[in-house]
Write a structure and sequence with these properties.
It is elongated and about 110 Å long. It folds into three domains: 102 residues, Helix Hairpins (Orthogonal Bundle), CATH 1.10.287; 134 residues, Chaperone, DNAj Protein, Chain A (Ribbon); 109 residues, HSP40/DNAj peptide-binding domain, CATH 2.60.260. About 11% of the residues have low confidence. α2 runs antiparallel to α3. Helices cover 24% and strands 28% of the residues. With 376 residues, the protein is α+β, with helices and mostly antiparallel strands. The strands form eight sheets. The protein has a four-stranded mixed sheet. Strands 3-11-10 form a three-stranded mixed sheet. The protein has a two-stranded antiparallel ribbon with strand order 1-2. β1 and β2 form a beta hairpin.
Length: 376
């Protein structure tokens, strides 16, 4: 069942001609088959919008449609579902040069004098580098050397792909446009020329060094700065360090993806650090000052364990966590979980003293149970 033409274009029945043009232009750009290759739903929506525009843009057909609906249009020789060959005659009124318009927004060739300059505007490929760093490097920042392979312009042919003393000629298949078109119902679909790969030119005699590619693979070494506070999954963008581009195009970029290795005992949650510190029964009972090693090599912080500290107690050290990325004046905290350790081996003297302590403190021989949830 057909939908109402005004509903298809998303306009009111009182919409002016300019509103109808704008509405159709938006839908044509969104659902054009060149932009949605292989998408049957988009193709159907493009056909539907085109049919609606063909009727509503014509004053006589619109008047007939408003009075009698689809029957009124059909009586005037309206478009059949697959016959829209006449509608493109008026597209210059909407898009100007229709084919040039779609070429521009679909990334096709920008023609100058019938020739394609697609190749000269091509950009080199972006590259990805996965870099594993330590938690210390992530917390304080670091400088790392990266070694990788990328494509550079061939110095023998200056990136043209043609042997010295030779050149290129217009592709005989596409005539230099870089595209071939095939008909599909009432519209045509453009695709890259299979002979020249969308370049519009073919090389008469390929370069002996690069084999006509215009690029050669070389090893590359660069230094990259890891900012303090970076986390796993973040990426560092390095412009111009990707693959080179043929015929003078700009090189691609390098993206360094960060993966932070697990630390021996510190764990990270956002900008906060967590660790557990073992203390003895006497330290937990009487209280103690202990020295806790930080991430920085050789640095230790004095931590006060209050008397009567229970196993699992969490102590918080403000501003001893991780610097916020791109904000050196803001830091997280360090959380220390106290782990009271029970001795497994004791001397006779220690055993006697502990037994005496138990008698003096009046230990409960029948303790009351505690819910596990109360311990969390």
């Amino acid at each position: 069942m057909k939908r109402d033409y005004y509903e298809i274009l998303g306009v009111q029945r009182t919409a002016a001609r300019d509103e109808i043009k704008k509405a159709y232009r938006r839908l044509a750009v969104k659902y054009h088959p060149d932009r949605n290759q292989g998408n049957k739903e988009a193709e159907d929506k493009f056909k539907e919008a085109t049919e609606a525009y063909e009727v509503l843009a014509d004053d006589k057909k619109r008047h007939a449609y408003d009075q009698f609906g689809f029957a009124g249009v059909e009586s005037m020789g309206g478009p059949a579902p697959q016959d829209f060959s006449t509608i493109f005659q008026g597209f210059e009124d909407i898009f100007g040069d229709f084919s040039g318009f779609f070429d521009s927004f679909l990334g096709g060739s920008a023609r100058r004098g019938g020739r394609s300059n697609y190749r000269s505007s091509r950009r080199g490929a972006d590259l990805r580098y996965d870099l594993k760093i330590t938690l210390v490097e992530a917390v304080f920042g670091a400088k790392k050397e990266l070694f990788f392979n990328h494509n550079e312009n061939c110095t023998e042919c200056n990136g043209s792909g043609a042997d010295q003393g030779t050149g290129k000629k217009v592709c005989p298949t596409c005539g230099g446009s870089g595209q071939v078109r095939r008909s599909s119902g009432f519209f045509s679909i453009a695709s890259a020329c299979p002979t020249c790969g969308g370049i519009g030119e073919i090389i008469e005699k390929p370069c002996r060094v690069c084999g006509g590619q215009g690029l050669v693979t070389k090893k590359r070494k660069i230094k990259v700065t890891i900012p303090a506070g970076i986390t796993s999954g973040k990426r560092i963008h390095i412009a111009g360090q990707g693959d080179g581009a043929i015929d003078g195009g700009s090189p691609g970029d390098l993206y360094v993806y960060i993966q932070v290795s697990a630390h021996e005992y510190f764990e990270r949650d956002g900008n906060d650090l967590y660790c557990a510190i073992p203390v003895s029964i006497s330290q937990a009972s009487l209280g103690a000052d202990i020295l806790v090693a930080m991430l920085e090599n050789g640095r230790k912080v004095r931590v006060k364990v209050p008397p009567g500290t229970q196993n699992g107690k969490m102590l918080r050290l403000r501003n001893e966590g991780i610097t916020t990325l791109n904000n050196p004046n803001r830091k997280g905290d360090l959380y220390i979980r106290i782990q009271v350790q029970t001795p497994t081996k004791m001397s006779a003297r220690a055993r006697a003293l502990l037994k005496e302590f138990a008698e003096i403190s009046g230990e409960e021989s029948s303790p009351k149970p505690i819910r596990l949830s109360d311990l969390k």
